[in-house]
Amino acid sequence: MSTLLSPARAGTALTGRAGAAVAALGDRARICDLYDADGSPVYHDICGTTGYEVKEILAALQGAEGAVLDLAAGTGRLTFPLLAAGFEVTALELSPDMLGLLRTALAGAPEEIRRRCTTVEADMGSFSLPGHYGTILLGTTTISLLPPDERSGLYRSVREHLLPGGRFLLTTVDVDPAGDGTDEDVVLVPAASGRIYAMYEQWTAGADSRTVTVLPQPIPADGPVTVATTTIGVVPAALLAAELDEAGFTLLRTTPIGGPDGSRHHDVLIEAEVRP
Fold first, then answer.
1. Which of 5, 91, 116, 191 has CB atoms 3.0–4.6 Å from 10's, for a disulfide?
2. Model-level pTM?
3. pLDDT for res 265
4. Domain that holds residue 210
């Protein structure tokens, strides 16, 4: 991941129901970023094993040749399905805490899986690797973690590392422009550990960022409570398509990603290739 907020800055973003829930904790609240040493286990518990967007990504990779570069691989949520599908995968991740969880998971995997995976600590916004790839993937709408002035570095690095005819796959949110005012969704999320988390997502129509806050449910009766939060950008699909075109990519197709019924914000998978 890239451009992560510090815990102090993340804490200042809390308003609405998320802010009220944290304020009720008083000095029991231990605010951290969702991607730092304290927040990474929470992220992995919630997202580390979910199959969200995996089906669409693997379908797009049918018949693809060459190795896959999994950008901002996190704890390996997409890396392991790619390995299971038979690909050689390089998993690139900036957060050492996330990368540590991924490497621990790899250490427990069969040797045949381990030997096809290379892990690299690097920034998706600007990277230089010795190899070239048939597919470069940036999933989990992680493009939203890069501010506009850093996305040009991502596009340049991708162009430099794609094999001729290779494809760039990335997911982003397709924001419903009909919304107005402040949108705050709260959902209960069952995690791999059996824990339940309340996930608050706050976004104001037209704003270029949204805040995600995660608290355990039920709240423990006493003791410190980890509050994992972060503020990430909103990069609508139409904006991303325009940026890719300007960066020298041809848009091949856009595929909706299945999500909860009734949601106003849907994710999409964008496939692009370098323009000759």
1. 5
2. 0.77
3. 59
4. 7-39+176-233
